[in-house]
Amino acid sequence: MAALSRFISRLGERGMPFYKLLKKVDRFQWTTEAQEALDALKKFLTSPPVLKSPDRATANSSAEDLLLYISCTTHVVSTALVVERPDGQHTVPRQHPVYFISEVLSPSKIKYPQV
């Protein structure tokens, strides 16, 4: 799942049941929560968002501005890097994902003070 983290938004939240299963030291037991998370992940993977690469600066134009969205819960930190581009169908620019990062916090990091 770590290899997919840059392509799937909020993977830490989506995969939390899997991390809980792998973290336990006693017997591994597949739960309904894990099955529901797996089904939701499979459904998401059938139509994932298309990542766009940002335009680089050239001699005649400047680089595109990138927007960073951060989502934090008590157990997961997720970020999304997006770029805004004009869309011919809408008057407002449309946001396209560029990169995702998601991390499940370890028990010691959960104890850090929240900012």
TrEMBL record:
Lineage: superkingdom: Eukaryota
Pfam families, per database record: RT_RNaseH_2
Transmembrane region(s): none
Name this polypeptide is given: Reverse transcriptase/retrotransposon-derived protein RNase H-like domain-containing protein
Domain Reverse transcriptase/retrotransposon-derived protein RNase H-like span(s) in chain numbering: 30-114
Gene3D superfamilies in the cross-refs: 3.30.70.270
Cross-referenced InterPro entries: DNA/RNA_pol_sf, Rev_trsase/Diguanyl_cyclase, RT_RNaseH_2, Viral_Replic_Matur_Polypro
PANTHER family for this protein: POL PROTEIN (PTHR33064), RIBONUCLEASE H (PTHR33064:SF37)
